[in-house]
Amino acid sequence: MIEKNTQLKEILDIGKNCDKCNHCCSYGSGALAEDDLKNIAKFLKITEEKLKKDYLEEIEKFNTKRLRPKLIRNEKPYGKCVFLTKDGCKVHEVKPLECKIGNCKDHGEELSLWFMLNYYINPNDAESIRQFNAYLKSGGKTLKGGQLKDLVKEKELKNMLNYEDLKWNQDKL
Fold it and tell me: Domain limits at 165?
């Protein structure tokens, strides 16, 4: 069972069972984390600045900004990853962390939630917590260890959320 605090090594092991069907790459791309920017630039033999300018775009979730490979949208809200070629992923050896952990097999949703909890939700940022709370209130899922009471101390949470949101969360505190 995947939890918020499951170690990255275990997550990577679970996520490696990818059929390389390129379905996820045809409709989006994964966010960079840790040393991805440096590793992809080195692999492509370009500077990090050139990589950012030519191949990456900024996205924001839960008040956290990350980079991801640009999408070739063709006038649609989704599109294929800029690194997807007819032969597969151009940067497969050093692909972004979110790509490495994600798959559409048995644990796809849990792996996506794990990445969200560990790389987008910032327990020290009140706006990130407010946005995550709105996500949860609208029926969004989380993992064990990923409830607000697990992420933020009760006293701090009271300063971050309004009265209505605190009331809604009372059973979780």
Answer: 126-172
Instruction: Specify the number of domains making up the chain.
Output: 2
* pLDDT tens digits along 73-102: 999 989 999 999 999 999 999 999 999 997
Do 135 and 97 share a structural domain? no
Tokens of 26: 């045809």
Q: How many CA atoms lie within 13 A of 88 on its CB side?
A: 8
Rounded distance between C-alpha atoms, residue 130 and residue 83, angstroms: 34
Check whether residue 99 and residue 142 sit in a common domain.
Answer: no
Task: Enter the pTM of the model.
Answer: 0.90
- According to the model, what pLDDT value does residue 102 have? 77
Is residue 166 assigned to a domain?
A: yes
Percent of the chain with pLDDT over 90: 76
Residue 143 burial by CB count (10 A; 0-12/13-18/19+): exposed, middle or buried? buried
Give the number of residues written for the chain.
173
Are 24 and 89 part of one and the same domain? yes
